[in-house]
C-alpha cells in the first residue's frame, strides 16, 4: 500500500541554476546549514555509539579511526539522512528519480598522535569504472553527499580535499607507488565546512582526505547515489520499520525485478511518484517509452 500524500515527506527543492553551474564547473558544492544544531548533536551521538561499540570490540583501525560501510544498516538512526529535504533535491536534480544508495559509510577520525606514513590517496570514486569505461571524460554515473558532524571550518582537520574542475579529467599525475612521497595535485584545496553543512560532489572529482593533526575528531556520514540499474555495493540486513517508500527505494528494499530497477515502471517507483505529486519532474528524465 502506498503512503498517503499527506504523510510523505517533501522530496526537497530542485537545484538552482547557480548551484548547477557551480557544480558543473567545479565538480562539487558546499551546502551550508543542512542540519540544525539539534540534528548534528543527534546524529553525532548515534555515530559515537557505533564508534564506542567498535572500540570495545577491538575493531578500530590502528590509528583509532573507524570507516564503517553500509551506514544505515550500521546505524539505524541515520535513516533520515537518506533523503534529507535540504539536500536530497540536488541528487534527483542531477540523476533523476530512478536512483538508489549504492554505497555509504560513517567515518570517525580522531586526532593523529604521531606522524602517519605517506600514502598517495588521491582517487576518483567508482573503482573499476575508471578502468573499464571507454570514454573521455568518464560518465558521471553517481553523486555523493557528505554530512559533516564535526567542525572542519579550518584546514588540517581531516578535511575533504579536491581538485576543483577535475571531474572531467580522466587522469592526474601521481607516483609509481602510493607510498612514494609525492606532492598534492596542482590546484588541490581542502574544503572547509561547519558542522551541519553538507558537501555534494561528483564521483569523478579527484579527491582525498587530509590527515587530522588537529584537536578535533572528524565525524561525517557519506551517501553515494547512482542509477538503480547499477548494482548496490551493500544491502540492508533487516527491513527497518518506519522507512518511507522513498527511503526503501534508496536502500534497495523496493520490490521489483531487473526491469523494475531499470525504470520501466515509473508509476511503481516511489521517488517518481513523489516528484510527480509535487510537480517537480524534470523533462530531462522522462519515462522509458515501450
Description:
The protein has 290 residues and is an alpha+beta fold. The chain is 22% helix and 17% strand. The chain has helices spanning 17-26, 37-56, 71-74, 88-95, 129-132, 245-250, 258-261, 270-277, and strands at residues 28-31, 66-69, 99-109, 142-148, 160-162, 189-191, 198-202, 207-209, 218-227. The strands form two sheets. It has a six-stranded antiparallel beta sheet with strand order 1-7-4-9-3-2. Strands 6-5-8 form a three-stranded antiparallel beta sheet, with no helix packed on it. The longest helix has 20 residues, at 37-56. The chain is globular. 37% of the residues are buried.
Residue share in helix:
10-25%
CATH class: Mainly Beta
Mean pLDDT: 93
CATH topology, by name, is Jelly Rolls
Q: What are the low-pLDDT stretches, counting only 5+ consecutive residues below 50?
A: 1-6
- Number of beta strands: 9
What do we call the CATH homologous superfamily?
q2cbj1_9rhob like domain
**Order of neighbouring strands in the sheet with most strands:** 1-7-4-9-3-2
Broad structural category: alpha+beta
Keywords:
alpha+beta, Jelly Rolls, six-stranded antiparallel sheet, 8 helices
In short:
This protein has 290 residues and is α+β, with helices and mostly antiparallel strands. The protein is built from eight helices and nine strands. The chain has a single domain, classed as Jelly Rolls, CATH 2.60.120.
Topology:
Blueprint: H1 17-26, E1 28-31, H2 37-56, E2 66-69, H3 71-74, H4 88-95, E3 99-109, H5 129-132, E4 142-148, E5 160-162, E6 189-191, E7 198-202, E8 207-209, E9 218-227, H6 245-250, H7 258-261, H8 270-277
Amino acid at each position: 500500500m502506498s503512503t498517503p500524500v499527506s504523510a510523505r515527506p517533501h522530496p526537497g527543492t530542485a537545484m538552482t541554476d547557480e548551484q548547477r553551474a557551480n557544480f558543473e564547473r567545479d565538480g562539487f558544492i558546499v551546502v551550508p546549514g543542512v542540519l540544525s544544531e539539534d540534528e548534528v548533536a543527534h546524529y553525532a551521538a548515534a555515530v559515537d555509539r557505533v564508534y564506542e561499540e567498535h572500540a570495545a570490540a577491538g575493531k578500530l583501525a590502528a590509528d583509532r579511526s573507524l570507516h564503517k560501510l553500509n551506514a544505515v544498516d550500521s546505524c539505524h538512526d541515520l535513516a533520515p539522512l537518506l533523503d534529507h529535504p535540504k539536500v536530497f533535491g540536488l541528487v534527483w536534480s542531477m540523476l533523476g528519480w530512478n536512483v538508489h544508495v549504492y554505497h555509504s559509510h560513517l567515518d570517525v577520525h580522531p586526532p593523529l598522535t604521531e606522524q602517519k606514513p605517506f600514502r598517495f590517496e588521491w582517487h576518483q570514486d567508482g573503482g573499476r569504472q575508471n578502468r573499464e569505461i571507454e570514454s573521455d571524460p568518464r560518465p558521471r554515473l553517481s553523486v555523493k553527499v557528505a554530512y559533516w558532524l564535526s567542525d572542519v571550518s579550518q584546514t588540517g582537520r581531516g578535511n575533504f580535499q579536491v581538485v576543483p574542475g577535475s571531474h572531467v579529467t580522466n587522469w592526474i599525475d601521481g607516483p609509481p607507488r602510493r607510498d612514494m612521497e609525492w606532492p598534492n595535485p596542482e590546484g588541490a584545496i581542502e574544503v572547509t565546512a561547519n558542522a551541519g553543512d553538507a558537501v555534494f560532489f561528483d564521483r569523478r572529482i579527484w579527491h582525498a582526505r587530509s590527515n587530522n593533526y588537529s584537536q578535533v575528531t572528524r565525524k561525517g556520514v557519506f551517501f553515494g547515489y547512482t542509477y538503480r540499474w547499477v548494482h548496490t555495493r551493500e544491502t540492508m540486513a533487516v527491513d527497518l520499520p518506519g522507512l518511507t517508500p522513498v527511503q526503501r527505494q534508496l536502500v534497495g528494499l523496493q520490490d521489483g525485478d531487473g526491469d523494475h530497477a531499470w525504470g520501466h515502471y515509473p508509476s511503481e517507483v516511489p521517488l517518481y511518484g513523489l516528484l510527480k505529486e509535487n510537480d517537480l519532474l524534470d523533462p530531462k528524465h522522462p519515462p522509458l517509452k515501450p
